[in-house]
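Journal club prep — side note

Before the paper discussion, L.F. wants everyone to see what a predicted structure for a comparable chain looks like in token form. Sequence:
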Amino acid sequence: MMTSSNIVLLKVEPDSLRRTGKGTISGRVYLQTNKGGFPGVDWSDIVVAVLCAWLDAINLVSAGSKFQKVHFMDGPYHVELTHEPQGMISLLLVEDREGGRRQEFSAAASASTLRNNAREAADLILTKCRQLGWLNSDIDQLGQLRDQTSL
């Protein structure tokens, strides 16, 4: 059951960022909930790809798309975002393995709260990548999606 006291915020840790020789940027990225982190507080993933997918999904659902799914790049984890009345978005955090699907957490949040949080996370990653001189098409895409995300 979804309640307004449940929270879901995207967290990134810019100081955890690492870049491979081919330019893939990984780092800690997870969703902070009342129960802890999803998929985990120390979850490391392809942070720019996850953040781009998150921004895109929030923008689409905020604009009226009924449903979007965001996958973490590593592991069987994803988030289902559903458009709800009165500017709300419901979120379902799911572990989906061959042996079955398990709902880890559910919440409802205002679209504006999710957009603001996503913009702040993008700003942190963009700033760190620019400081490190890590500029590529993925960073450009993240900047464009960030700019398309209204407050």
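L.F.'s comment for the group: DSSP finds three helices and eight strands in the chain. Keep this in mind when we get to the figures.
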